[in-house]
Write a structure and sequence with these properties.
With 127 residues, this protein is an alpha/beta fold. It has 3 helices and 4 strands; from the N terminus they run βαββαβα. Strands 1-2-3-4 form a 4-stranded parallel sheet, sandwiched between helices.
């Protein structure tokens, strides 16, 4: 079975760039706290992520965003989700969705992974 990718922050940008260059099958991807490489708080040391691909990803994706992420505006999340064909889930004011967000084990994130797996299984059964 192809892998399901789970990425956070810069890892999300890596997944998006990789998806446009590799023809490997992917079940889907959970993209959490996607940063804006053109944003004012983006780390200058993390160069090489622009321009961001602006096309639909070739696998199902769920993007999780916060309304007060210091590395990306909600508008950036919406625009990226639309361009990539991602389902956008906004979880409120939790910052950059990391250990400091107070989400503990974040069972909702695990539920999203399970939902992506089930979606992939349904797609495979219908083929």
């Amino acid at each position: 079975m192809p892998p399901l990718l789970v990425a956070h922050s810069l890892g999300c940008l890596l997944v998006v760039h990789w998806a446009n260059r590799i023809g490997k099958p992917i079940v889907g991807a959970l993209l959490v706290a996607v940063p804006d490489p053109a944003g004012p708080r983006f780390p200058t040391e993390a160069d090489g992520f622009t321009p961001l691909p602006n096309n639909r990803l070739p696998f199902p994706t769920v993007m999780v965003a916060s309304t007060d992420d210091i590395y990306a505006s909600l508008d950036h999340a919406r625009q990226s989700a639309t361009a990539w064909g991602s389902q956008l889930i906004v979880i409120g004011t939790v910052g950059h969705i990391n250990a400091e967000s107070g989400l503990d084990e974040w069972s909702e994130g695990w539920d999203l992974v399970q939902r992506l797996l089930q979606q992939s299984e349904r797609m495979n059964e219908s083929r």
